Automatic annotation (TrEMBL), chains A, B:
Keyword field: Isomerase, tRNA processing
Function: Formation of pseudouridine at positions 38, 39 and 40 in the anticodon stem and loop of transfer RNAs.
Reactions accelerated catalytically: uridine(38/39/40) in tRNA = pseudouridine(38/39/40) in tRNA
InterPro entries associated with the record: PsdUridine_synth_cat_dom_sf, PsdUridine_synth_TruA, PsdUridine_synth_TruA_a/b_dom, PsdUridine_synth_TruA_C, TruA/RsuA/RluB/E/F_N
Tagged with keyword tRNA processing: yes
CDD domains on file: PseudoU_synth_EcTruA
Annotated GO biological process: tRNA pseudouridine synthesis
Enzyme Commission no: 5.4.99.12
Highest taxon, organism lineage: Bacteria
Subunit composition and interactions: Homodimer.
Protein name, UniProt field: tRNA pseudouridine synthase A
Length: 245, 245
């Protein structure tokens, strides 16, 4: 038995998200398991670092698999990329120590969110950003982001209340203007269900003046989802990197 | 009766090309005519500057339409964009002198073609470039491009032989390296069926050394399609601008 770590890129547009579902082959995990099973010759479970929602993309999702023995990683990865659809690519495959688990061993994650601020949406980037042409005050957004960085109970920033713990640490939020788009990067220990998209919706509402920057503090304190901003669309979100050490 | 000129952006991925077909709504012209007819309240013919093949994109296709009277261009365009699919956008609508025809009055066109030279294709750009990771000698490609610039009989660079004339003038071909991609821009009076894609396939074969740069001259002289390079895929091609003055 040998454990391998995979780094996976995908365009989430066509998919119902990462997590395998019973009656559909429209999930990333489902397609990876079917394809890896075909090459291995026996069923293989693919354990992702976490679930991504339908429509969310990844530049560096990670997953662990256990194979019955040693394989040549390069050959295996190339064979796999041949049968995967072109919007899912395995970028890297590494032999890791037995028992490695992509979710349980993850130490941190980095996400990025892209906002198209042009008056008219960019036709060719439309699946990879959220169109939001309402004039954004970046300084106000940065002030709000400052209140969100740190170890907090983020229960006001999730749409699922049954997590064991809603405490997470955000190490950094970087807001960067790039010509006609804005990139927001989130780096932290981990993120709750919908958390990055609700953080983004909240920062956007601060950017337009609909919310004051220090409302970020009261949302954290109250822990009420309805105080936070809208759920920013999935299409603008990318899982960029998962950290293990 | 009033004539208007429209500038149109589209992502050609989902479509069978510009030209209206009998039993499909999967053409850009067909969708524009149906949508404009809905707003005008009567059938309107949309005359494009030229046809683009299935899968080819446009950043600045132009078309002329004739409406029964004067309309407010901004309102009309905004109403139209509301009912058009999100991969077709009318960027500009201008009142022009009666009788203006987007194809007949066109004086020149600019196309661009994008080549992804990375070893592994860029998952998020895959619909907007041709993946060609074979090592390209740009200087050789520029030499070949130099032979193609000018007024020539381009019958070796088309897949359709029944044009009235196969003589065209290419004003310029610019080959530009941008990080991991190459952009080739073609500017000329007009281009024959498949001409930009065959020119690109030929330049790519010069880039890999499969063809010598001066074979461009013999292809022009012989006028034989089979001497030219492969038909580069539609997905890398953009109609960038159409010139009228």
């Amino acid at each position: 038995m040998r454990t391998y770590k995979m780094t996976i890129i995908y365009d989430g547009t066509r998919y119902q998200g990462w997590q395998r579902q019973k009656n559909t082959d429209q999930t990333i995990q489902g397609i990876l398991e079917a394809s890896i099973g075909k090459i291995a010759g026996y069923p293989v479970e693919v354990n992702g670092s976490g679930r991504t929602d339908g429509g969310v993309h990844a530049k560096g999702q990670t997953a662990s698999i256990t194979l019955s023995g040693r394989v040549d990683e390069t050959t295996f990865r190339e064979e796999l990329n041949k049968i995967l659809p072109e919007d899912i690519r395995v970028k890297e495959m590494l032999l890791v120590k037995n028992g490695f688990h992509a979710r349980q061993n993850a130490k941190g994650k980095r996400y990025e969110y892209f906002i198209d601020t042009r008056e008219k949406p960019d036709v060719f980037a439309r699946k990879y950003c959220c169109h939001y042409p309402y004039g954004l005050n970046i300084a106000a957004m940065e002030e709000a982001a400052g209140y969100l960085i740190g170890k907090h109970d983020f229960s006001g920033f999730t749409d699922k209340k049954d997590e064991k713990s809603t405490i997470r640490t955000i190490y950094d939020i970087i807001i960067e203007k790039q010509d006609s788009r804005i990139r927001i990067e989130y780096y932290g220990t981990g993120f709750l269900y919908h958390m990055v998209r609700i953080l983004t919706g909240t920062l956007l509402e601060v950017g337009t003046g609909e919310k004051k920057p220090d409302e970020a503090i009261s949302i954290l304190e109250a822990g009420k989802r309805e105080y936070a901003g809208f759920l920013a669309p999935a299409r603008g979100l990318f899982l960029k990197e998962v950290y293990y050490t």
